[in-house]
Specification:
Distance between the termini: 40 Å
Strand content: over 45%
Order of helices and strands: EEEEEEEEEEE
Helix content: under 10%
Radius of gyration: 13 Å
Structural class: mainly beta
Shape: globular
């Protein structure tokens, strides 16, 4: 089994920044992808950003140039630096690890952008 624990959510004003972190533990092997998803009330969960083992990244168009995903393979962590936050970024953010075609999820962390 794989466990994911997120941290770093909170309340921030529009234009502000937050950094989310996720630590993975358990049966983790060498080749896996990590990502951040989010789910706003009444909406489907959506991919925010992903990063593979080699560091190749992919971003949703709505966060391109504002968010940066990074990972530390030695520590099995993934982070999401969120800048220039907008009200529409408000959601529960979930850490995801994909290994051997199986998805593992964290419990989620609330990000609220409001003045």
């Amino acid at each position: 089994q794989v466990q994911l624990v997120e941290s770093g959510g909170g309340l921030v004003q529009p234009g502000g920044s937050l950094r989310l972190s996720c630590v993975a533990s358990g049966n983790i092997y060498s080749a896996y992808g990590m990502a951040w998803f989010r789910q706003a009330p009444g909406k489907q969960r959506e991919l925010v950003a992903s990063i593979d083992k080699t560091g190749h990244t992919n971003y949703a168009g709505s966060v391109q140039d504002r968010f940066t995903i990074s990972r530390d393979n030695a520590k099995n962590t993934v982070s999401l630096q969120m800048n220039s936050l907008k009200v529409e970024d408000t959601a529960v953010y979930f850490c995801n690890l994909n290994q051997f075609a199986t998805d593992y999820w964290g419990q989620g962390t609330q990000v609220t952008v409001s003045s």
